[in-house]
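[SOLVED] Need 3D model of a three-part complex

Original post:
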Amino acid sequence: MSRSSSRESRSPLVWQWFGTLLVAAFALAFAFPVYFMVSSAFKAENEILAIPIHILPYQFAGLEEFRRAMEIAPLANYVWNSALVSCVNVVCTLLLSAMAGYGFAKFNLPFKNFLFFFVISTMMIPQQILVVPLFVEIKYFGWVNTYWGLIVPGLMNAFGVFMMRQFIAEIPNEIIEAGRADGASEVQIFVILVLPLLLPALASLAIIIFIWSWGNFLWPLVAVSNEKLAVLAVGITTYTQPYQRQPMWGAAMAAATLTTLPVLIVFLAFQRHFVKGITAAAIKG
Amino acid sequence: MGSIELKSVGKRFATFEAIRSIELKVEDRERVVFVGPSGCGKSTLLRLICGIDDVTEGRIFIDGVDVTAVGSAKRGVAMVFQNYALYPHMTAEQNMGFSLRVAGVPKGERRKIVRGVAAILQLEHLLHRYPKELSGGQRQRVAIGRAMVRRPKAFLFDEPLSNLDAALRVEMRLEIIRLHEQLKTTMIYVTHDQAEAMTLADRIVVLNSGNIEQVDTPRNIYHHPANTFVAKFIGSPKINLIEVDRLAAAGLGQLVTLAGRLFGSKVRSIGIRPEMLQLAKNGAFSRLCMNVEYFGSETIAYFEGFDGVPLAAKASGETHFQLGQSYKLSFDTVGLVGFDTTGDALPPL
Amino acid sequence: MSPAVLFFAVFAIFPILFGSYLSLTRYNLLSPPVYVGFKNYFALLHDQKFLFSLRNTVVFVLGSTVPIWIGSLILALVFDSKVPGRTVWRALFFLPVLPPLIVVAVIWKVILHPYGMVTAILSPFTGLGEIPWLTDPRLSPIMIIAVNNWALIPFFAMIWLAGLAAIPDELRHASALDGASRMQTFFLVVLPLLKRTAVLVAALSTINAFQAFILQYELTPDKGGPADVNLTLGLLIWKYGFQYLRMGDAAAASVVLFAIILLVTLIQLLLGRSKY
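Solution:
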């Protein structure tokens, strides 16, 4: 987005300063709650709700609140479960979406267009309509309160199929035909020729799926009632809605920070890919 | 009415100096072409004149008025972009009428003006179409029409034909010339194609790395290039540049003496245009024929050069050459150009 | 491709069909489902809670999609301009996107505490030491909408940015050359070319808003209170299915939700077709 250094874009200095100030004010307002979460995670409990607002912790409580959080609820389990679910989700969704996308993009099946349209329209399906029957399904399989029930239903993602198809469609057919001419099997073609070319798209999709899965709330809430199997998203509510005590804000903020941290890391690490993925999806959408 | 003058104009991007202190005067109603290799600054220069970019030093005058600080819309020039820059969401008619609409001209009058311009460009039947429904040549004409509607003091064309196929390019070249005759407005045209420059220009400005190498009529540029760069850039096939030392090494002493007599002792290399190099029974020297290209209307033969670069000779019609055979060649001293060690041309004595 | 299709069938297509079937039953998970025809649907029509939730959902959808659409566009334009310190502001504005929505709810639960900082900041003007942001029937829906918008505006701004990036610079140059002021260029050239993005943002934010669940679950007393004023359709479905164990009713309500979303999205997409 380069703007040339032209006469056109100059406005009076006063407006520029005012505009910058306005932008800065809003930026800080938008950023503040997240900052508050992080700083509160390191404050002593009584400081969090203190007036006037303690921007920086008066007493740096270190990891005290994190420890507290682990005492109140099985925080480590939450983290492990979230990590497990999200990672499995990413790997499987990537594979399945890539396969499905490949099928839609490069093969001529009967009813292909109809099927594809059908898949896409499922993107519009609200979680709520799937939750009840899915729950009944996993109950039937005996998967309630198991990792199977927690992870498996989330593995198919229409968006993933859509995105993969768009990217795979751009791979020249000649490459695949050359592979066939060289005697490679369909599986070999897929794994050795197609997948490597998809790396940036896969990276973008991985980020999207990971973040979506990490924050997924409704399904884990419903599928699992055993605390030991809860994910972070659901587990964090135990700090704010306990049955007997007052909410433990310090512990809650600590857990909140912990939950947000992986998202931040994933973003920073894969920033470039993410922007590319969203851009492509938005343009092709 | 549409004269343009650049005084000491320079443009720097961060650390990169794209344009270095350019002096140029374009007369009203002139057709001037900026030509040069990629990256020479010709498009940048055009954008400076247009006002899309600002100069970092120097001044620009249009009709004697200093417009250096004036915004692009108010300079009274119109630009036809390389990729046409047509508004995809507007019909051809709306595209052409946009500048009028923005200026508040009422719809009825807009229509009249746009239709008038469309008639000149033979676009009347395409006015209701969207850019994506038009061919490359048609889009180009709409872009030109959009510029024409503004009745500018000068038209600026940024490589407008580079996206068209060869046949269309020739056709559009003639159209542009025809338009210029009709509108009698100054035109500045940027291209990397030296053939386009030669056919379109009243005067050519040859640019290289932000500097003007030569400004002159096509004829003069061709026959009297100011330096080796211009000599090599204009003319296809390229001029044959032979270093005097190489001639001596090849035992062609009499040619060395000839060069000295024509251009003085400073001469370092001579340039012979391919059409000046001919077969002759008592030719000055003989070379081996390495390659031949038959074009139907003419033949180009390549001979072993003196320093690894083949010599090109142009003959009309179909002249047959045998590969690997030696031929006697000679050249007319009239068309000869001489250059000194820095590459500048030496005037004939 | 076949494992994918199989998978999809079992966990996506089948549930929808099964869910539709369930909506026609009375089922409490303990005994097998009992077929009752369309009784559940008729019951919903007379169900105060359900009708109320419809109203609440519409309020939420309107209250979020409109400000989000406008706000994110403005934000994207700010990012696109040459404001000094742009990269810093961008990073700051982006922060709300990081925490998962449930974490967002937790954070705001603290910030909007009756004795919390917002009350404190406003106390010089209101003279009040305690404001029930999340427990007052009139205030809480507004606050929840505000929190939702806070979290989503930066996200949709990114989508707008992608759309803006797709507009070639040359078009803006051409427009400036044609004499258009910056305002004119924006409204006559940029905005029309953003139509596709505009429709995408509208559709996505609408679909998302209709499913509102997490914020209402976490930020309201009694899950939807006070007095069911924050009970959205999404929350209702969960309640009927997993609190009251009335699976049939929950399924019926979810079918209604799906139908509404489908209808609204289709209308949006139809209205947003462009011929260029």
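Edit: Chain C touches chain A through 88 residues (CB under 8 Å).
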